[in-house]
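Hi support team,

I've been running sequence recovery on a batch of backbones for a student project. Most finish fine, but this one hangs at about 90% for roughly twenty minutes before it completes. I'm not sure whether the input is malformed or the queue is just slow. I've pasted the structure tokens below so you can try to reproduce it. Let me know if you need the job ID as well.

Thanks,
M.K.
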């Protein structure tokens, strides 16, 4: 399904944009979503056990504040304010303090947003490295084949989307192969 969606989605979306309007890119999801809802509601039976949980509102607020101040510093730095300005340095400092408070708070409560056990060990770091490489390759591979011909040849939208088809075929092949290797070897 991923391979079909990766190739057919951009082609169909491009057809809608070229021949109808860009809004159809979103409208086409409505019948698919309704069909998925009907099918999963009638066919899918998962065991359900109700458990009471304590929501970590303080941890959520600290996490949002830490990430927001960091993002503001990164977005405003160099454009709205100079990188060395007190505003940007203050936002970086606030983000560091709020991150520290968040990590301290998460160790003290019963149901943290980010359990400490989930970030210990090599699995998270290795997975993060792999995911970073994959995302970089995916976005680079998605944007370059379509952008270069558009800038050089002024090709039509359908031709540009067809350029991405070999990329998706390679992605599908490597995804299936790596999944099977992981299933056999555990790595």
């Amino acid at each position: 399904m991923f391979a079909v969606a990766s190739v057919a989605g951009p082609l169909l979306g491009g057809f809608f944009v070229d021949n109808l309007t860009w809004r159809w890119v979103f409208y086409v999801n409505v019948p698919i979503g309704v069909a998925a809802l009907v099918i999963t509601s009638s066919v899918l039976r998962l065991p359900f056990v109700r458990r009471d949980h304590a929501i970590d509102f303080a941890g959520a607020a600290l996490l949002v504040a830490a990430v927001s101040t960091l993002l503001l510093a990164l977005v405003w730095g160099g454009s709205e304010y100079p990188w060395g300005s007190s505003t940007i340095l203050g936002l970086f400092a606030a983000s560091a303090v709020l991150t520290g408070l968040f990590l301290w708070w998460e160790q003290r409560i019963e149901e943290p947003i980010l359990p400490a056990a989930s970030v210990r060990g090599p699995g998270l770091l290795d997975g993060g490295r792999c995911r970073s490489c994959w995302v970089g390759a995916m976005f680079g591979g998605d944007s370059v084949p379509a952008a270069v011909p558009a800038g050089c040849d002024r090709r039509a939208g359908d031709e540009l989307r067809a350029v991405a088809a070999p990329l998706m075929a390679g992605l599908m092949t490597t995804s299936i192969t790596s999944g099977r290797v992981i299933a056999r070897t555990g790595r």
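--
Follow-up from support: It reproduced on our side and the slowdown came from queue contention, not your input. Residues 57-110 form one domain. No action needed from you.
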